[in-house]
Amino acid sequence: MQTFPMSRIPLVAALGAAALMALAPAPARAEYYQYNYTGNAFTMTTVNYFSEPGDPSGGRSFSLVSIDAQIIANAPLSGTVTLSDIRSFSLTLTDHDSGSRSTLDFPAPPPIECPGCPNGPNVTATFSMADFNFLNQPTGWDMSIRTSTFYPTGREGWLMLSTSWQRDMLDGGYEAYVGQSGGLINSPGIWSVTALVPEPATYVLTLAGLALLGGLTRKHWRSHGGAGVA
């Protein structure tokens, strides 16, 4: 059996290949950049201030947690970065013992308004990054998100997560009933940077070019009885 010689591909198929090259633009521009921080584990202490008298733990329980961060930006970050230089960021508290997660976002999603529902959450945030290394990863950062929710009973629940180059910490609770706290000093986690998702138009144009070339090639081979015979 012999293969079909490339020299016999008609001009129209060659034009299809040229169309493919023209339709798929030169390197796709990333739509945005994602900076991920993976923190190290530390101990969170939860205190129930209304535990039963004589409780040997004093109402305290402990779990292993960590704080992760995610920053979305339109372009690679450099210099001194503030909230106005990024699209969004979030901090996530992961409880490694239970597998549960609590994520705080900034900007925060709009609250759901309904009669009798909690008021909030009210969200405040701080953000700064600087001193980027040759991998475009920050070596200096300080960010926090605090959320507060007021309940119809007049009580408040809150959670604050923060991370910096020198400390990860959390503070939270439900008024005077439950408190949560924990921190890790001088043990920063790991940063990674990912350029995400070419513009959708890039995929559309590339697929259109591939479909054009594939259709032209199949049509030509059928007109010549397949790939050839020995």
Automatic annotation (TrEMBL):
Keywords: Signal. Residues 197-218 form the Ice-binding protein C-terminal domain. It comes from the Bacteria. InterPro entries: Ice-binding_C (IPR013424). Residues 1-30 form the signal peptide. Pfam families: PEP-CTERM. This is PEP-CTERM sorting domain-containing protein. It comes from Roseateles amylovorans.
